[in-house]
Design brief:
2 domains; 66% helix; mainly alpha; two-stranded antiparallel sheet
């Protein structure tokens, strides 16, 4: 297994390089880059100044609505677009730029501050937010993590319990009723349910009942919030989390519930279950000691990928509807604004987490079922 892990870790490196390379090349051909975005902003300000009687921008010889070539050249330097394509590509991955060229060679090479690029987890600064990409990810991560982690544990806990109950009561009224409920939930998009929740239970004046908080995941900023007790802050957090979490996980029950039910039903038809019953074991013992051990293998082995996906992936529409500033909204705004450091940085992090999740999934197969081996002789 150790050799397998080493091979997989080594394969991650070219995979990440390929992902970043393809994305970098696509970005070069996307119209409306950061220079065009800034041109629109400056032209808009120039138009406002012109309407207000201010004329052209101070210190420029251009007409209102036009950009001074000197300013354009400064913008190109700010966004590093004055450098050749190959240099920008290498700076994205790994680049050595010593802060003190006269320092000893060993100090210049082994000092992390002298290196930049994704391979040393330096993603640069945002074009428009005046912050580094890592700082922005750290700021937005708590919102996405709150939704992701909570939805992960709730979805898996409820679906596994419900799937087992449906398998035990197969073709009964309980099975039919619960199937109808989960399928209706699956057919309603989360953002549609979010709109209904906001309209009927939201903070607006036309709501039937005002149960949904105004925005965010806490009431931070409210006068006296800092003096609240820990228990009151926890209840406030759960109050803010309830509505977006409900809409976020609404459509995730059907697939996992039906998968659990079908896996349990399939195992009950196998010979070892009939043998266990013939030996006089109770149905409870057969279910929990024999059936579930094999039926839940495909579900348990999917934990790492599902957990990482829900932990880091943000839901743009849910965050927009409930005014939550998370990774989903950050990534969307970065794409719209052509904020390439954020786009590439978040993509690199998500890709790395996805590859790690796939590796953990493969390893979990071996940990759960010892019959599985990664030896080359059984390949």
């Amino acid at each position: 297994m150790i050799s397998y892990i080493i091979r997989r870790l080594l394969l991650m490196f070219p995979t990440l390089i390929g992902i970043v390379t393809i994305t970098f090349l696509i970005i070069q051909f996307v119209p409306g880059g950061p220079i065009d975005q800034m041109k629109s902003i400056l032209r808009g300000h120039a138009g406002v100044l012109s309407e207000a009687g201010g004329g052209a921008l101070e210190g420029t010889t251009t007409k209102p609505g036009e950009i001074d070539p000197k300013h354009l050249e400064q913008l190109r330097k700010i966004y590093h677009l004055d450098r050749p394509l190959w240099e920008r590509y290498l700076r994205t991955l790994l680049w050595h730029s010593p802060q003190n060229p006269e320092a000893p060679f060993a100090e210049r090479v082994f000092k992390r501050a002298n290196w930049e690029g994704f391979l040393v987890f330096k993603f640069g600064d945002s074009f428009y937010r005046n912050k580094s990409v890592l700082e922005l990810i750290k700021e937005k991560l708590p919102v996405s993590a709150s939704l992701g982690v909570s939805s992960f544990f709730l979805t898996y806990t409820i679906c596994i319990i419900l799937g087992i109950a449906k398998a035990i009561r197969h073709e009964t009224r309980f099975d039919t009723a619960t199937s109808l409920i989960v399928l209706v939930g699956y057919s309603i998009p989360g953002f549609v349910m979010g709109i209904f929740v906001i309209v009927f239970l939201g903070p607006g004046d036309g709501a039937v009942a005002h149960l949904i908080p105004l925005s965010g995941l806490t009431s931070a900023g409210t006068p006296g919030y800092e003096d609240w007790s820990l228990w009151k802050k926890i209840l406030d957090y759960l109050h803010h989390l309830a509505a977006p979490l409900f809409c976020y996980i609404l459509g995730g029950f059907a697939t996992l519930t039906m998968l659990t039910k079908n896996a349990v039903l399939e195992e009950t038809q196998k010979q070892y279950v009939l043998t266990a019953r013939a030996k006089g074991l109770t149905e409870k013992s057969v279910l929990f000691k024999h059936i579930l051990k094999n039926a839940l293998i495909p579900l348990v082995t999917g934990f790492p990928v599902a957990f990482l996906a829900m932990f880091f992936a943000g839901s743009l529409l849910i965050e927009q509807i409930f005014t939550l500033d998370g990774l989903g909204l950050l990534s969307y705004q970065a794409v719209i604004q052509r904020d390439y450091p954020i786009v590439l940085g978040t993509l690199f992090m998500f890709s790395l987490m996805g590859l790690v999740g796939q590796l953990l999934t493969d390893l979990s197969y071996v940990l759960i079922d010892r019959r599985i081996s990664f030896d080359e002789s059984q390949g």
